[in-house]
Amino acid sequence: MTLTLLDANGYGRIVRENGEIQAIVEHKDASEEQRQIKEINTGIYAVSNAKLHQWLPNLSNDNAQGEYYLTDIVAMALADGIQVASVEPEQAFEVEGVNDRVQLAALERQFQSYQAKQLMQQGVHLIDPSRFDLRGNLTVGQDVRIDINVIIEGDCELGDNVEIGAGCIIKNSKIAAGTKVQPYSIFDSAVVGEDTQIGPFARLRPGAQLANEVHIGNFVEVKNTTIGLGSKANHFTYLGDAEIGAGSNIGAGTITCNYDGANKFKTIIGDQAFIGSNSSLVAPVRIGNGATVGAGSTITRDVEDNSLAVERSKQFAKENYPRPQKIKK
Asked: Active-site residue among 27, 53, 125, 235?
């Protein structure tokens, strides 16, 4: 593999005759005429194993540096009547060498800059291309907007008019058209429908499947759960191993208690259900269509359609209650 550089100083030169490669000459051994050549050797070869073992014993260190040049196998191949072909990479950084972590970081930035440019040419609005990392494959629709410090990992797909807020991490996920993801949300193997609202600080774990127009708010975690059309969980909620119907509202602080210390169990919440704040739904349990769970309840039995379930201790008042006092020492 060869590469054409504006400044080829220090590299082995590709010597051609009538377009055919004749030799690779190291810089220190090159004549002034050969040093004007801009095509250089990248050090990457594809060679028959049998031929390589034939040629290697014949290498000599009779050169300016007193070294054994692997590049001499080119002349040996030609002497044996074997044609030497070459290809060039599309981008120079693809064959750039790395000797330390400083060079590795610099090369990574070149690669990320190249990927960012490709996305912008497809119409993606990157707020700051220098603060974007693509660590996999990204398929995009029209007018996608990505804010700073977003990381895309694995295979991801963003539909038309999707917006990703600052600091988000999206991994192996599919986000449909019109969805807005607020800053610092994390997706892993999630499927999100159209026109949903996610975050900020939301977490979608593997198996999260959100239908269209779902709202998932701040500090809500969703794992192995399907959520139906237009349902909402806007604050401080854990939804794990659950199935939630359409148009339901999950109040702040709700938890699906899916694990008994040994096994996982499922919570089913029907359509148009209302779960009051700070409720614990102990799986396996079913909340029916149109059912209401009063705030602060711990639900351990099924709740029928269009019914109200409340499970909490009765409030009482004790007048003139003497508060405990610190013991004086």
From this structure: 235
